[in-house]
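hey m, so remember when u said the C-alpha cells were messed up on ur end? i reran from scratch. heres the input so u can diff it against urs
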Amino acid sequence: MDTFLWPLMVAVAWVMVNIHRFLVFIGFPDGPGIAWVLSIIGLTMFVRLLIMPLFVKQIRASRGMQLMQPELQALQNKYKGKKDPASQQRQQEEMMALYRKHNTNPFASCLPILIQMPVFFALFRVLANLEAVATETYADHDSIGPLTAALAEQVQASTVFGAPLSASFMNSSELTVKIVTVVMIVLMSVTQWYTMAQLSMKNMPDSVKNSDNPAMRSQRMMMTIMPIFFAFTGVQFQIGVLVYWVTTNLWTMGQQFFTIRKMPAPGSEAEKKMRARENARRARKGLPSLEEEERAKAEAEGRSVSSGQRVQPVRKDRQKKRPQSAPAANAGKPAPGDSPADAKADAADAPSTNAVGLTQEEIARRRYERRARARKQAAAKRKAEAARNNKNSKRKPR
C-alpha cells in the first residue's frame, strides 16, 4: 500500500512540515507540541480548499436531486410492474433525460468524500510509519519527503489531551489513549450524522420528505449506517487521523450551514426562513416584501403568481426573446367568430381592465364570464319571445 500511496504520502508530509514551519515562524513553540496537532488541522483545511469546486458541485447536484424527486417518482410509478426489456430500456432513457434536465447525477454528492479518501489513507500511513522513520528502520526510505527522522520523532511525541498522535485504541494499552479515542470517535460520528441530517431536514422540499420517496429512504439509511461504520472502524485509526476526520466534518458542517442559509432549495424549510429574514430586513427599510415584489413583476410581465409561490429568475437574454403574450397583443381585437357586438364590447372592456392593473388571465376570465352572461340573457330572451308568440297564436280566432 505504501508503494501505491507514496506520492500522496510525500505530499501530505510536505504540507504538514511546511505548516509546522509557518506556525513556528509566527510564534508557536518548536519541537513536540500543539504546532504538530495544528499542522494536521491545517492539512485538513488545505485539502478542503482544494476540493471547494467539488463541494459546490455536490450542493448543486443534491439540490437537483431534491427538485427532481416528484418527476422521478412519477416515472417510477409509470413503469411499475413492467419488467420486459423494452420497458426497462425506456425507463432508463427517460431517467437519464431527467438527470440531464436537472443537470445532476446520483454520484456527484459522493465526489468530495471519494477525493478525500486517498489523502485520508496517506495520512494514516504517514502516522503509522512515524516510529520506523524516527528509528531509521523504514524500508527503502530514510524519510517521507521532508519528514526526516528528527521531525518524525517530534510528531510522535506530540499529544492530544495526553494521547500521542500516532497511537490508536487497538495498538495502545494506555487508558488516556482509549478515552481520547472514544471521545473523538463519538465526535466524528455525531458530526457525520449532523452533516447528512442538515441536507435532509432543512434543505429538502416538503413534497419529497414522505416515506415512499426512494431517495429519502436512502438518505435516512445512510444517516444511520455511516456513523455506525465510523464507530466500528475508528478504533483502528490513529489519534492524528481522528483529528483530521473530525476537522473535515466540522468544516463540512460550516460550509453546508452557510450554503443552505444563503442558497436554499426552493420549497424547503431553509428557503422559508431565508424569505422571512429578507422580508424582516425589507420591512425595517420600508421596502415591499419579496412576495409583493414578485407579484408586481409577474403582473408587469403578464404572468400570474399564486400566493406563496416562488418566481424563478429568468436570464436577461431570455427575457428579451420572450414574445408578447397573445392576450396582451390582441387586447381589444375581435376574436374569430365574434359578433360585431362582442367585438365592440371587447374593445371597450380591454382598456378599462388594463387600467386597474389586471393580468391577462383575469381579463380573459372576465371576458368569458361577460359572454356567458350575454348568451344566458339571449337564451332567456328567445325563450320569452317563443312563449309570447305561442300565447298570441292561441288567441287568434279560428
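this time it looks ok to me. The chain has 17 helices and two strands. if urs says something different then somethings off w ur setup not the seq
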